[in-house]
Amino acid sequence: MGTFPEGFVWGAATAAYQIEGAAAEDGRTPSIWDTYSHTPGRVLDGDTGDVAADHYHRWREDVATMAELGLGAYRFSLSWSRLLPGGRPNPRGLDFYSRLVDALLERGIAPVATLYHWDLPQEIEDAGGWPVRETAERFAEYAAYAGRVLGDRVHTWTTLNEPWCSAFLGYGSGVHAPGRTDPADALAAAHHLNLAHGLGVRALRAEAPGARCSITLNMHHTRGDAEAVRKVDGVANRIFLDPVLGRGYPEDVRADTAAITGWGFVRDGDEAAIAAPLDVLGVNYYSPTLVKLWDGTGPRASAHGHAGSAASPFPGCEDVDFPPQPGPYTAMGWPVDATGLTEVLVRLHRDYPGVPLMVTENGAAYPDRVDAGGAVHDADRVAYLRDHIEAVGAALAAGADVRGYFAWSLMDNFEWSYGYSKRFGLLHVDYPTGTRTWKDSAHWYRERIAAARRG
């Protein structure tokens, strides 16, 4: 069992739309995920986040569980539609998050707040959404308000969670809200998300000068043919990493996507604005991605269920194939390979030196069941967590500056287009009743945290 440095942060993560429920309570207005999930055919079994895990009403119980787990930090997201519905401050929404943050602090749990985890207010999407520049400006206003009302108590701010998903699944392949399929819009959305991050960091620090600021990226750890790796890495990773970390947009990405867009959405000064200094870079990792150049014959395979077609989430990669990978697999069909996490962290340390890292999501879905004795035996998840935590230890041993690890997820939740069919939680949620049950993985994680603190 690897050792971790003193002060290493152990946490768990969630997202507002996935757990809160109370979709139309206390002033909250619809987000794009409310609209998308209520659109027939978009989400498996017609599931919605209307109730989800009912965290909005059960947050006290959930915070007590976090303390019992021994978490040092809790990563959650704010609902933009709850905090600023229609662009106007909502005292009841603020009260919910204020009480949650205070309860975490009382338990010695550091609040790590994500401003945007995919739930754009519907009225902003109606005005054009992320493909238009004004959305980045609206986000900066939202960040300023959040910093003003919560900045004295939040330990770390994350501007965006996985902007690749927001841009390329939401506006490219259409498998996430708002369900649009225009590669030019997807690329414009990627830029405006980057711009929103930079403007948001500046807005947060203007309101809360001591704010620790971050962004969380879902790293695609690509393996395979060098040219295919370069292309996918460009539009999946470097399109965000390079501008956020002060290098501007990669020229090869611009060239690869020139037939789709002329990049006229990038204005003078944008890249400087995007490169607001970070305190930590959040890294989400679940599995590696195998790629090769497509020979043009036969159907192309898909990457994590996202078809390589005209509605691809990888614009500019039309000649890239995503062949099957060796197992074992999670319930999502994703291959399990912890070595990829070590390689991702070491790569970031090597290619972007001086940037502290934090694993902000890592976990696996399996078909969990509560047995007759009231237990949930999820040995596969225990093995997954054990191996990936050891992979973080290996990255530390190789010199990577990794500051913490957050398991995804604290509890079972609404898993986006998969509805309630996939369970990632340390806690099993019985959706009809909301009852939480500790899985074996929760007991294991509690002991792993305790062992790490004992040294």
Automatic annotation (TrEMBL):
Q: Does the keyword NAD apply?
A: no
Q: Which reaction(s) are listed as its catalytic activity?
A: Hydrolysis of terminal, non-reducing beta-D-glucosyl residues with release of beta-D-glucose
Instruction: Note the SUPFAM superfamilies from the entry.
Output: (Trans)glycosidases (SSF51445)
Keywords of this entry: Carbohydrate metabolism, Cellulose degradation, Glycosidase, Hydrolase, Polysaccharide degradation
Q: What is its EC number?
A: 3.2.1.21
An annotated Gene Ontology molecular function: beta-galactosidase activity
First-level EC class: hydrolase
Tell me which InterPro entries the record gives: GH, GH_1_N_CS, Glyco_hydro_1, Glyco_hydro_1_beta-glucosidase
List the PROSITE patterns. GLYCOSYL_HYDROL_F1_2
UniProt lists the family membership as follows: Belongs to the glycosyl hydrolase 1 family.
Tell me what this protein is called: Beta-glucosidase
Q: Which organism is it from?
A: Actinomadura parmotrematis
